[in-house]
Design brief:
Blueprint: E1 9-12, E2 15-18, H1 19-33, H2 37-45, H3 48-58, E3 67-71, H4 77-86, E4 91-96, H5 99-111, E5 118-122, E6 135-141, H6 150-159, E7 161-172, H7 180-197, H8 202-214, H9 218-227, E8 231-238, E9 243-250
Parallel strand pairs: 3-4, 3-6, 4-5, 6-7
Antiparallel strand pairs: 1-2, 7-9, 8-9
């Protein structure tokens, strides 16, 4: 029996799965972790994820009255920051492919008093249901590595940018050599342990650790963004390269 080719399979952590199966399996992971997602982010990063997101928000360049899109926005912390930047005269659209995560994001925005000027849309990053040139800024934070076709998602996000608009990708990346032994021990020992003890789901957090290792490194992702048609692409390493913020423009 012939083995599936690389054109019909993709990575799900360290496992190879059929491309059509990855979205379903990722959905299962986030259905499982949704209720504990924010708590686990704080525990896993020691709160550093808040600083990484704050830096990302600081370089959006958004002004009151503008329009922004947060893709794979999960529980809505980036979207909340964008909403504060564009104000009630602007618009922020929060999307996620996972209904459970999107519900948490919607609730967070409402609880923070953002009812006007925000919308929540269940959508696949690879096929965003918005017109060309709709947004001044598009963000995706810790979501790209879970997408089946990352290149298609980047092209989709570039398509919905207005001319002069900016895409910001916040994602785990390749840390400096000196950090790798500690980072590996953390990722493959502590992270699954926290998943088991706090979220009662070791397997999902093991997948999340593996998905970080399978994600393109800084230079590879920058090249993918250029291939998607984005220009002036660059990145900022944070916490020794454990995380990077990539940015590119549609001109």
């Amino acid at each position: 029996m012939s083995q599936p080719s690389s054109h019909t399979t993709t990575d799900f952590g360290y496992e190879r799965v059929r491309r059509e199966d990855k979205a379903r399996r990722v959905r299962g992971v986030f259905d499982s972790v949704a209720d504990n997602y924010d708590l686990m982010n704080d525990l896993m990063s020691g709160g550093a994820h808040r600083l990484w997101k704050r830096f990302t928000l600081s370089i959006t360049g958004l002004r009151p009255g503008q329009v922004a899109l947060d893709v794979a926005g999960g529980t809505g912390d980036i979207a909340l920051g964008l909403a504060r930047q564009v104000g009630t005269q602007g618009l922020v659209v929060l999307t996620d492919i996972n209904a459970a995560m999107l519900a948490h994001g919607r609730d967070r925005l409402i609880d923070a008093g953002h009812v006007r000027g925000v919308e929540c849309v269940q959508a696949n990053a690879e096929q965003l249901p918005f017109a060309d040139g709709s947004f001044h800024c598009v963000t995706i934070a810790f979501g790209l590595r879970n997408v089946t076709d990352k290149q298609q998602a980047l092209a989709s996000m570039r398509r919905v940018l207005k001319p002069g608009g900016q895409l910001l990708v916040l994602e785990f990346s390749k840390p400096a050599d000196a950090l790798r032994p500690i980072y590996d021990a953390y990722s493959f020992r502590l992270l699954p342990l926290l998943g088991r003890l706090v979220a009662k789901d070791e397997a999902s957090y093991r997948y999340l650790a593996e998905s970080i290792r399978m994600h393109p490194d800084q230079e590879a992702l920058a090249a993918m963004m250029r291939e998607a048609g984005l220009e002036d692409c660059r990145y900022h390493n944070l916490t020794g390269g454990i995380v990077a913020v990539h940015r590119g423009y549609r001109y």
